[in-house]
From TrEMBL:
Protein name: C-type cytochrome
Keyword Signal included in the entry's annotation: yes
Source species: Steroidobacter flavus
Signal peptide residue numbers: 1-21
Origin superkingdom: Bacteria
Gene3D superfamilies found in the cross-reference section: Cytochrome c-like domain
InterPro entries: Cyt_c-like_dom (IPR009056), Cyt_c-like_dom_sf (IPR036909)
Presence of keyword Iron: yes
A Pfam family of this chain: Cytochrome_CBB3
């Protein structure tokens, strides 16, 4: 599990070794998702990204978040999962990279880094909302 997390984190850092959070702020939610999430969760959010098979646990299908939450998208919780403030205890140790800390570290010394990180994580959460499947018909 730790190996897959390390693979994702190293991939993130190597893709943008010279890019700062300011570069990410200019990106759309879809572009950010492609950069940070698609390798594990897949382009459509179904948990079928190219590195998903390297995990010992199944990568979640992000398109079903609202369905699992009785039809309401828990945006605040999703932001907290992305940045590491919310850990799902039943899942055991954390296997998903925690982007909040990594993104703000890219701009050490920049007083706007936390604000930029919030913008980036907000755009990611908004994009994941767009991936949601409609509620199942009864």
């Amino acid at each position: 599990m730790r190996t897959a997390s390390l693979v994702c984190t190293v991939a993130l850092l190597s893709w943008n070794a010279t890019a700062g959070a300011a570069d990410y702020v200019a990106m759309s939610g879809q572009e950010l998702y492609g950069r940070f999430c698609a390798s594990c969760h897949g382009l459509t959010g179904r948990g079928d990204g190219p590195v998903a098979g390297s995990f010992k646990v199944e990568v979640p299908d992000l398109t079903l978040i609202a369905r699992r939450a009785q039809g309401s998208y828990p945006r605040d919780r999703i932001e907290k999962i992305i940045d590491g403030r919310f850990i799902v205890g039943a899942h055991g140790s954390r296997t998903m990279p925690v982007w909040g800390e990594d993104l703000s570290r890219l701009e050490l010394g920049n007083p706007d880094a936390e604000r930029a990180t919030r913008v980036i994580i907000g755009r990611l959460a908004d994009y994941v909302w767009l991936l949601q499947k409609p509620a199942a018909k009864n």
